[in-house]
Fold each of these.
Amino acid sequence: MRNLAALVLAAAAAALPAAAAPAPTGAELFARSDKGFCIACHQVPKGAGPATRSDLGPALEGRRMRELGRAALRAIVVDPMRANPGTVMPPYGRHRILDDAEIDRVVDYLDALP
Ligand code: HEC
């Protein structure tokens, strides 16, 4: 019985680090090469993310993002091919590169860009 309890505790402890890892922020999802890697194509204003020379996609800045609005931003990230079938931007939602909650955080990040 004591061994069983120890085993259960050990299993719970082993499962903890993954469960407790904080979810990546919108900024992290935007930059990380294993997530959105949006910085491969887009620049953001100084201080809002890593400085790059990427120019495959337009530079993203806050005023334009807020003009587009959250619904349009979400639609672009989910599936930019709906608006432009020839785009090189990946359909992050349709291809499940990012999940719904991650897309929400990326949209928060875009909406708050300087
Ligand atoms: C492979 C290059 C590439 C990647 C990676 C990429 N995009 Fe794009 N993105 C583009 C291009 C090119 C456009 C221009 C519109 C088009 O092609 O339809 C665009 C357009 C946009 C727009 C609209 C900009 C405007 O002013 O109208 C937003 C917002 C955007 N991308 C956000 C993102 C986000 C967020 C990510 C990561 C989750 C991302 N992009 C990843 C290439 C990329």
Note: The pocket of heme C is lined by residues 30, 36-38, 40-42, 56-58, 60, 64, 73, 76-77, 80, 83-84, 87-90, 92, 106, 110 (CB under 6 Å).
Amino acid sequence: MRRASGLTRGVLTVLVLWLAGCTQEQSSGTVPDDIERFLERHWQQPLPAQGTLPADYTAIEAALGPQACAQCHEAQWEQWRGSLHSHTMGAGIQWQLHLMDQEQGNRCLRCHAPLAEQKALVALQQGWPGVPKSPPPEHVPPDLADQGLVCAACHVRNHQRFGPPANKPVPEPVPHGGFVASAAFEDSRFCATCHQFAADGPRVNGKLQEDTYAQWQASPQAAQQSCQSCHMPDRRHLFRGVHDRDMVLQALQVSLDVQPGARPGEFQARAVMRNTGAGHHFPTYMVPKVDVVLQLVNAAGGARRTLAHRVIGWGVDVALSQELFDTRIPAGGELVVEQAFSSPGAGEWEVELRLDVAPREHYERMFQDSLRHADVLAPEVLALLRQALAEAKATRYEALRLATRLPR
Ligand code: HEC
Ligand code: HEC
Ligand code: HEC
Ligand code: HEC
Ligand code: HEC
């Protein structure tokens, strides 16, 4: 499948930049505490295979697939299934894996399908070397890799379950040999493993491409709220973010105000978007963009005139070499859009504020740009690329529309 043409390598260069810093270790510069030591072992790279199956496990206790966990943990399964963690092996990464060798691919899988058993299945799919000679054992379902960031990737090591300390009575005996409780599961550093690059990771204009944990540490929320308290409320496995309208509305306090101007027939519109609810920048990294549009709208006729247009986000070119703009709103910060205008004339007029979210804007541009190499891509790779582009575009939505009458 690998085509070593110059053009294909051109596509690859872009992607390799993105992963370049991803394999670095977290370094805090302080003496490691228990949680840090636990996380170092829990997220060691690469994750070792689960090893010998305990003799007393039944088939359902042994199985690593989410459907098996669902037999007894249905609520977590229902929630996780609706989250992007169950879609980390979609077309967007699949078409790129086809262009990579095993070493490059495994660097992506570290976050997208981290279990050794998943990596072996991907190697089998891709025809990479280093595939185990025997077929996967019974406890490894053939679709384990396609299911993305599965339960076992966060919870199972050496066939042993790990989870947060129980916060309600635990029925005895617990299947799967019980579980090891660790406070690391309630700590934001648990998420930093994949949502924060190390200090020597890839940067654009001096800024780390993935810096969510550091942004959180600097936020007013850090003292009271962990990543989990907002993204896993009551331990629910929702992991909702910028793709979700309610989360975006939870992030921002929005106000719209129109005042008479200095002279008759003149007005001043003022919209304020304050990041009070995201415990990091809004949005946290370069991928999403939010269009802020102020328009003058005729209530009866539907006539519209745009007064102001801003984009909230971190704009970076597809080569990840140049910053185009950075208008992200830090935690506690605000964006103010002010616009003076004169009376539009007779009729009922309103000023309307709209927020349109493009959760994967950077990928839309990157995938579109990659289509320039369509002629050197194998048909199945091209089909995946087209699917990834269509899926990225389909995530766009309108988050908010507010309107205010012109004062008399
Ligand atoms: C046969 C039923 C059964 C199966 C299958 C099962 N579990 Fe459990 N598990 C339990 C029970 C019962 C407990 C006790 C605590 C509870 O009810 O949450 C438990 C506890 C846990 C805990 C600890 C919860 C805490 O409070 O920290 C984790 C984590 C866990 N299981 C993960 C998994 C994962 C991941 C899978 C699939 C790979 C799985 N379990 C499969 C029944 C099961
Ligand atoms: C991205 C990592 C991740 C994935 C994937 C994940 N979990 Fe969890 N899980 C956690 C964390 C973190 C907690 C603790 C949350 C907290 O304490 O706020 C947790 C808690 C739990 C608990 C304890 C719940 C309670 O109420 O005490 C169970 C049981 C559990 N997970 C099972 C599962 C199952 C089953 C799946 C798959 C359907 C799954 N998890 C997928 C990270 C994950
Ligand atoms: C350090 C962890 C990490 C590594 C390593 C990593 N990713 Fe990701 N990836 C993420 C996170 C977090 C997101 C979600 C945020 C986003 O959209 O950028 C993501 C999102 C994506 C998406 C967009 C979502 C989708 O399914 O369309 C694609 C495509 C992607 N990654 C491809 C890759 C490729 C290819 C590699 C290897 C070159 C890679 N990633 C390496 C963490 C990682
Ligand atoms: C105070 C609540 C809160 C805390 C704490 C918090 N988040 Fe968020 N997060 C949000 C809200 C609300 C959104 C949706 C708005 C947005 O995209 O910024 C979000 C969005 C995201 C996104 C979507 C991508 C994006 O560009 O915004 C990711 C990924 C994310 N958070 C990860 C994390 C991680 C990792 C931590 C901990 C280091 C964390 N969050 C801490 C509330 C929180
Ligand atoms: C093993 C790596 C890994 C770990 C650990 C992990 N994530 Fe993720 N997370 C990802 C990847 C990869 C994606 C991208 C999914 C996609 O878009 O394909 C993602 C996506 C998300 C999103 C969705 C963002 C959006 O664009 O809407 C949120 C929110 C999130 N993660 C929060 C968390 C939180 C909170 C934790 C800790 C409890 C956590 N993650 C732990 C890898 C990880």
Note: Residues 1-28 have pLDDT under 50 and may be disordered.
